[in-house]
Amino acid sequence: MDNSRYLKKILIDKVSGGEFIEKEDVVIDESRISIYLNGEKTISMMCIPKNQEAHAVGFLMSENVISNIEDIKSINISEDGLRVDIEAIVDESSLENLYKEKTLVSGCGGGVTGNIAGNVEIPFNQVSMEVKAETISSEIKKFYEDSELYLLTGCVHKAMLYLEDKTTVTAEDIGRHNAIDKVVGLCKLRGLDTTKSVLFVSGRLSSEMVVKAVMHKIPIIVSRTAPTHLGVTTAHTHGLTLIGFARGKKMNIYTHSGRIIG
Amino acid sequence: MDNSRYLKKILIDKVSGGEFIEKEDVVIDESRISIYLNGEKTISMMCIPKNQEAHAVGFLMSENVISNIEDIKSINISEDGLRVDIEAIVDESSLENLYKEKTLVSGCGGGVTGNIAGNVEIPFNQVSMEVKAETISSEIKKFYEDSELYLLTGCVHKAMLYLEDKTTVTAEDIGRHNAIDKVVGLCKLRGLDTTKSVLFVSGRLSSEMVVKAVMHKIPIIVSRTAPTHLGVTTAHTHGLTLIGFARGKKMNIYTHSGRIIG
Predict the structure, then answer these.
(1) B111:A104 CB<8 A
(2) Fold classified for A31-100
């Protein structure tokens, strides 16, 4: 895929040991994308203007504003890529809740979620599924090897869904949240089942990242880095297997380890 | 300082080469803190329940809801540490704007800011100030050596203000935004001037991090990692010196390099 449109060339001063040299450098695009739902502006997000459809769908489904992909009648993106218009059947109480209380969350990508506030009842995830520890290790290795925008700019988070048929879907964004919403949205738009998948994310697992996995009934979430305590307790409460510090052949399983086999 | 109250002990499964061993581990606390302004709930944030006063003050001043520290009549924290009550003279239009449009931003710590939307006019920063490149290098080295919560949990961002008298003030949080709001709030509460300071942050410099520096008239911002394009253009427009990839003796100066000398 051609990623060059998301890269911006600029002139900078490179300093090395007191010496200043003017050089060309490349930085990632960051744009404000607005989502309009049934004609009304719902939210704006600062993100990479890529996979906007998937982003909007994933976000609205993460927030339970749209319950089923079939409830979406149409999706249109403006010519400049900065406005997504969705016509859909919405859950009015979730939409209202999205506006009612603001919670600034800790993850890259920001987040305003009514779900954390406990307004949506989510059943305990009882999916029985087994994944080998070595599969987690080999998949996270591939996950990090294959991220062009990160390698070029150092300013990108990534999310990947490893599906039951062993195929993967990936998405990148400047925000952790956005990367998850995008990858889930891509799967929803393609009609792929995520209820027996593993979600790999590049960022830390604070509660709102875990909530997104819970909302989409994803049974396993894996990160190369650390969870917060609320991330761990949220995973525990909802039946999600949470894995952190997955590096090389090592990993920490914080909750519901029964899904991971040696 | 005793940080143990922000650490939670849990039992986890450590996996190494297919072998599972149950062990005690430590993760960072993540709590929902609510800010009440003149008796009304204004916002909730997911963060480490530490420096709540400074956090609330820094956030409200970043958002221009409170313009001057003298406008605050009282600050109270509830016994459980989860509620901050502030009595203050507020800028009603900024407060309203905080509620009006939601923008999910890309930085750890989330963010809802009316300032990015351009509702607040901020003059171009013309402060003349010179800092040696080697001072930036030595300060960022110290910045990373001295972060107990990060070393223990791997789940913490840090912000530091290097003031004109060469003293420093630091704050940590799970979110980048929160760490900046906390360190600015600490300075405001102590009556310290930040208009000739350098802001060091551990995270990436997306636009909303830069906007916080702009709002507080901080002339220089430094990160060990990358900026976004909008971060760079925001710094350019507002007269902020933006430095990224500050590692060892190297750094990239993206804007207004005149304040940095060899």
Answers:
(1) yes
(2) Ubiquitin-like (UB roll) (3.10.20)
The whole-angstrom distance between B125's CA and the closest CA on chain A is 19
How many of the other CB atoms lie within 10 Å of CB of A22?
Answer: 10
Contact A206, B47 (CB under 8 A): no
Task: Tell which B residues from 13 to 32 touch A, by Cβ distance under 8 Å.
Answer: 13-20, 25, 27-32
- What fold does the segment set B131-261 form as a domain? Cytidine Deaminase; domain 2 (3.40.140)
CA distance to A114, A179, A181, B56, B108, per residue, from A199 (Å)? 22, 11, 11, 34, 19
Tell me the chain A residues in contact with residue B17 when contact means C-beta distances shorter than 8 Å.
249-250
Q: Which of A19, A104, A232 sits opposite B43 (nearest CB)?
A: A104
- Name the CA dihedral angle for B177, B184, B204, A229, rounded to a multiple of 10 degrees: -40
Q: Does the interface predicted TM-score (ipTM) exceed 0.85? A: yes
Active site residue B108: yes
How far is residue A212's CA from residue A229's CA, in Å, rounded to a whole number?
16
B11–chain A Cβ distance below 8 A for any pair: no
In this complex, do A116 and B32 lie within 8 Å of one another by their Cβ atoms? Answer: yes
Which residues of A fall within a CB distance of 8 Å from B155? 204, 206, 225-228
Q: What is the pTM of this model?
A: 0.91
The H helix count followed by the E strand count for chain B is 7, 15
A62 contacts on B by Cβ (under 8 Å): none
Does A155 sit within 8 Å of B226, measured CB to CB?
yes
* All structural domains of chain A with their residue ranges: 31-100, 131-261
Distance CA A30, CA B211 (A): 14
3-state secondary structure of B134: helix
Test the B interface: residue of A209, A228, A232, A251 with most B CBs within 10 Å = A228
Tell me the per-residue pLDDT of A73-132, one tens digit each, with 9 for 90 and over. Answer: 999 999 999 999 999 999 888 887 776 554 544 443 344 444 444 455 678 999 999 999
Q: pLDDT tens, position by position, for chain B (262 residues)?
A: 678 999 999 999 999 988 999 999 999 999 999 999 999 988 888 899 999 999 999 999 998 899 999 999 999 999 999 999 999 999 888 887 776 554 545 443 344 444 444 455 678 999 999 999 999 999 999 998 888 888 888 889 999 999 999 999 999 999 999 999 999 999 999 999 999 999 999 999 999 899 999 999 999 999 999 999 999 999 999 999 999 999 999 999 999 999 999 8
Distance from CA of A171 to the nearest CA of B (A): 15
Alpha helix positions (H), A77-228:
92-100, 133-145, 148-153, 176-189, 207-215
Residue B123 · residue B222 · CB < 8 Å? no
